[in-house]
Amino acid sequence: MRALRSVAVHVAGFFEAHSDSIASRAALALSKLGLAMRNRAWAFAGERGLTPTQGQVLVLLRTRGVPLRLGQVAEELAISAPTASDSVRALVDKGLVSKTRARDDARAVALELTSAGRQEAERALSWQDFLLSGIEALAPAEQEAFLALLLKILGALVERGQVPMQRTCLLCRYFRASDSANAVYHCSRLDAPLSRRHLRVDCPDHAPVRDDAVRRPIAAF
After folding, report:
1. What is the largest CA-CA distance in the chain?
2. Is the domain of 176 the same as that of 142?
3. Rounded distance between C-alpha atoms, residue 55 and residue 117, angstroms
4. Is residue 168 part of a domain?
5. N or C: which end of the chain has fewer CB within 10 A?
């Protein structure tokens, strides 16, 4: 028995000495998921005569539900202005996006989906559905924890300026710790309790926290 225990300790020491950090392995796993998503996006987009970026533009306009300027599209998708312009031009030529006047400035141009564009956007939204089966294999509590951790990672990347501001609960000025024993958080916009299972990834009522205040909600989370 003592010999077996000694072998186990030796093997454990081997793995400690020959393993990358947990953070490195987690990042590698996420990169593999990202690769799978890109491959899936290219496959689906190719079938529809689109590029993945064009599909992302359609989804963005669909989820926002309001006309967006070209600069907003580029910022939201973290792509260059020329790349956004090329993608939008192609979508306009395909009759999926139209140009209109911006609501806040009649001299500016904004982009919105056409009827055909809304249908194509719904199809593009389904490109990532293959991930659902993997996530749904987790227990409900695991799904809840996974969502919370992803939001925290996003928040940390926003804080470092490595990704643009995200419209998540964690990065919203209405997000508060709760005084209630029945809820972990509180949405002051709706004046309602908020549990982890109800955290939003892309909220239409989002009001971004100031750049110098991003760390505060992340630390509280």
Report:
1. 81
2. yes
3. 10
4. yes
5. N
**169-209, pLDDT tens digit by residue?**
989 999 987 766 666 888 999 998 888 889 999 898 899 88
What is the number of domains present in the chain? 2
Q: Which of 128, 157, 173 is the last residue of a domain?
A: 128
CATH code for the domain in which residue 124 is found: 1.10.10.10
Q: CA separation (Å) from 203 to 30, 122, 166, 173, 198? A: 24, 18, 9, 12, 11
Residue 20: CB partners within 8 Å, gap ≥ 6?
28
Global pTM reads 0.74
Q: How far apart are CA 83 and CA 210, in angstroms?
A: 28
Note the pLDDT tens digit of each residue in 72-94: 999 889 899 999 999 999 999 99
The CA angle 147-149-154, to the nearest 5 degrees, is 95
**Angle value at C-alpha 24, between 211 and 32, nearest 5 degrees:** 95
